[in-house]
Each structure stands twice: as C-alpha cells, then as structure tokens.
C-alpha cells in the first residue's frame, strides 16, 4: 500500500472516531436535557421529604439508602444509631457522619456564643421535646441539668468523642436534617444530576433550574400556629443555595397560658421567648443553614442582626410580629 493510501485510511478512521464522539456526546446531552423531572417523597426522622430532580433514571433507592445511613448515624429516635450509643456511653467512637456533624456543630456553637449547642438534649427532654419521657419540671431540676449542658463539655479527638461528664447528651436535631439534605445533594451531583430541589422537613437545597427552566421558588411560611394550609409570607427565587427555617409555630405546647417552644436557650435552660417568629437562613450548605437558623431563634432578632454583620456571606429572612400582621426583614 502506498504511503498516501495509508494516510488517507488513517485520516478517515480519525474522522469516523470524531464523528462517533460527537454523536455519542449529543445523545448523552439530549438524554439529560430531555430527562423527566423525577419526584420522590417519603418519611424520615419523623418528618417528610420531597425531592425533584431532572434525571433519566429514578434514584429513589439510592437516596433512601443515604437517608437510612444518616438515620443510623445521627437519629436519636433510632436507639441503635451511633449517636444513641454515644449518649448511653456504649461507645466513644464516632462514625464518619457523626464526626463531620459534631465538628461543624462545635464550630457553630463557638461562632454563635453557645446559642446553638448540641449538648442541649437533657433540657430538650426535660421540656418534653426529646426522645425520653418527660420527668418533673421544676426550676431546681432544670438548674441541675444545666451543670452538664454546654458544648465545652464535649470534645473530639479524631473520631473519639470525650464528655466532661457522663451525663452529657448530644442532640443533633437542629442540624441533622440539613446535613441529610446535603448528603442527598452530593449523591445527585455524583450521578450528574444538575437540576434539583431537595426538601426534608423544610430544610432545602436547590440547584440549577426548575421544571419551567427558571430558578427555584422557595416559599417561606407565615409563622402562624393555625397555618395548616401553609399560607406563605414570602416567595424567594434562588438557585445553587441551601435554605433552612426555624420557628416556634409548629413544635410547641401551651403551659400556664404561655407557648413553650422546642428551641431551648442553653444559657437560661428554658424555652426561648422573644420577638423573632421565624428565621430562614441561606448558607453554602444546608447543615450550616439549619444550625444557624436554630441559633437565630435562640439569639433573637437583635443579636442575630449583629451576628450577620460579621457573617456577610450568609443571608436571612426574619419574620417578626408587626402592628398589622407579619413583617419580613431581609438580612444581607
Ligand atoms: P430546628 O427545627 O432546626 O430549629 O431544631 C429544633 C430542635 O433542635 C429541637 O427540637 C431540639 O431537639 C434541638 N434544640 C433545641 N434547642 C437547641 C439549641 N439551643 N441548640 C441546638 N439544638 C437545639
Ligand atoms: Mg436547625
């Protein structure tokens, strides 16, 4: 065969290969572009989840196994979870998820001056919001519990969890839902899913576009205890963000004519009472948004405003009681 013929064959093969790559690439892109919006829903951590994502395949089984993994690590409703075992003193070894969440929780406790505090569990139980039976509720009892509540009673060295007192108990209820949302987002991204909305019990991550090819619309509920229909105070358009809301309008009871909130001030040992009705925080990760939103409820509006001045990369929507209904305040 002459050299020019060999050159022609080589060039033709090269062109064919290039053509093959272009066709294959176009098919993959088309498949992703035309992929349906999958919708998965269910129950986890005593609440509901709703997930929408543009993907040619349904990933619900894999999503479920991520949620089960978070449950097996961090749920206190699961008596066999790593955290339940650490609380009972059966082990001092955290697993990967417990370690990651505790490190973040300790950082946020420090940043918020202890408003957010994962060692608040004994107080949460005493006030009837935990997984344990509520015992007597007297000032003396509450004050006695405060002796071993405080994030400084907890430390992590590698995976080893140390408590200054064996009665120290950990409750990740104000951060674990957000963390679970982040883990599901990670799974979707690993599966080349770019357009999605994940919501677990009101904690959300949005990415890419919604069904209409626009940014996602996030509704912020009116903080009304009778708001069964979920009337909205605000609708915010955003994408590639994590959002979490804390408020005292869903989980509370009335005692002596006063509303007892599930958010406990670690400083006073008592449920918070103040002007801020709900705090919605927008942060890089949902675990952070979740923890900061709870911290805002503890700090109240004034201290939270000061906090956000020092954290310009975070933003928030506060809902306060106005003279004539609710008032929304946008922070940062
Ligand atoms: P969230 O709905 O994210 O604000 O979380 C509320 C839950 O967090 C409560 O039901 C408690 O289990 C827990 N919790 C209450 N007070 C605090 C606090 N000061 N810091 C951290 N977690 C708390
Ligand atoms: Mg929270």
Description:
- The chain has helices at 3-33, 60-74, 82-87, 96-111, 121-126, 139-146, 176-190, 286-309; strands spanning 37-44, 47-54, 154-157, 160-163, 196-200, 203-207, 216-221, 232-238, 241-247, 252-255, 258-261, 264-265, 270-271, 276-283, 315-322, 325-331.
- The protein is α+β, with helices and mostly antiparallel strands.
- The protein has a domain at 243-332: T-fold, CATH 3.10.520.10.
- The strands form 5 sheets. The protein has an 8-stranded antiparallel beta sheet with strand order 1-2-5-6-9-14-15-16.
- A hairpin with a 2-residue loop joins strand 1 and strand 2.
- The radius of gyration is 24 Å and the shape is elongated.
- 39% of the residues are buried.
- Bound molecules: adenosine monophosphate (AMP) and magnesium ion.
In spatial order, strands of the major sheet run 1-2-5-6-9-14-15-16
Major sheet size, sense and barrel closure:
8 strands, antiparallel
Structural class: alpha+beta
CATH fourth-tier homologous superfamily of the domain at 243-332:
ApbE-like domains
Q: Name every ligand kind in the structure.
A: adenosine monophosphate, magnesium ion
Global shape: elongated
CATH fold group of the domain at 243-332: T-fold
Tally of helical runs: 8
From the N-terminal CA to the C-terminal CA, the straight-line distance is 73 Å
Strand proportion, as a percent range, falls in 25-35%
CA radius of gyration is 24 Å
**Percentage of residues assigned to helices:** 25-40%
- At the first level of CATH, what is the class of the domain at 243-332? Alpha Beta
Number of strands: 16
| H-E order | HEEHHHHHEEHEEEEEEEEEEHEE
What is the CATH architecture assignment of the domain at 243-332? Roll
- Mean pLDDT level: 91
Uncertain regions spanning at least 5 consecutive residues: none
